[in-house]
């Protein structure tokens, strides 16, 4: 892996929203590069695979949240718009200080790139993997952040990005 292939972080402020605009947010970098997850939970919660970046929870500012709702189970808490159904965020349980942000809800020109594909053995038969990012059968991806990252316990026990 060359230095240009190593995971990066984006440090600018980005805005994002759901499809209908009932949830709007901004997030101040650093943001982790994108991890695409094909695990059963991500597939079921999104209807496909999930591509998510991550930032410190304290760096997320909800600008409009009247449509924001949360659903949780023992592994994660997921934020979505109750009006249009857009999947926006997820938080691991137990928490690690990072909020995962669905990369497609961010404005364009993020400066982010896909840095890893995880749980590729759980993907649907119609899902093709593209690009040169590492393809892993578990959640032990190399994509971290300069100031925080998934805890070792989280990765060992639950795996998802």
Query: Quick one: biggest sheet?
Result: 7 strands, mixed
- How far apart, in Å, are the first and last alpha carbons? 21 Å
- CATH architecture descriptor: Beta Complex
The backbone outline, from C-alpha atoms, is globular
Poorly predicted runs of 5 or more residues: 1-7, 146-161
Q: Per DSSP, what share of the residues sits in E-state strands of 2 or more residues?
A: 35-45%
Q: Tell me the structural class.
A: mainly beta
For this structure, the quaternary state is single chain
At the fold tier of CATH, the topology name is Metal Binding Protein, Guanine Nucleotide Exchange Factor, Chain A
Global mean pLDDT: 83
Q: Total domains, how many? A: 1
C-alpha-based Rg, rounded: 15 Å
Widest sheet, order of strands:
8-9-10-11-6-5-12
Share of helical residues: under 10%
Count of helical segments? 2
- Provide the succession of SSEs: EEEEEHEEEEEEEH
Number of strands: 12
The CATH top-level class label:
Mainly Beta
Describe what this molecule looks like in 3D.
By secondary structure, this protein is mainly β. The chain has one domain: Metal Binding Protein, Guanine Nucleotide Exchange Factor, Chain A (Beta Complex), CATH 2.170.150. The chain is built from 2 helices and 12 strands; from the N terminus they run βββββαβββββββα. It has helices at residues 40-46, 152-157, and strands at residues 9-10, 13-17, 24-28, 31-32, 34-37, 50-56, 60-64, 68-72, 76-81, 87-92, 98-102, 114-118. Strand 10 and strand 11 form a beta hairpin. The longest helix has 7 residues, at 40-46.
């Amino acid at each position: 892996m060359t230095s240009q292939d190593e995971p990066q972080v984006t440090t600018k402020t980005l805005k994002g929203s759901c499809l209908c605009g009932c949830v709007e947010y901004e997030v101040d970098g650093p943001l982790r590069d994108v991890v695409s997850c094909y695990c059963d939970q991500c597939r079921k919660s999104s209807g496909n695979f999930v591509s998510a970046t991550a930032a410190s929870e304290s760096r997320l500012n909800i600008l409009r949240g009247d449509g924001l709702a949360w659903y949780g189970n023992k592994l994660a808490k997921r934020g979505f718009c109750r009006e249009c159904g857009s999947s926006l965020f997820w938080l691991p349980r137990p928490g690690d200080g990072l909020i995962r942000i669905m990369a497609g809800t961010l404005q364009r020109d993020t400066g982010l790139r896909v840095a890893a594909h995880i749980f590729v053995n759980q993907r649907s038969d119609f899902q093709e993997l593209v690009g040169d990012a590492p393809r892993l059968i578990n959640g032990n991806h190399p994509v971290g952040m300069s100031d925080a990252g998934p805890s070792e316990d989280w990765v060992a026990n639950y795996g998802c990005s």
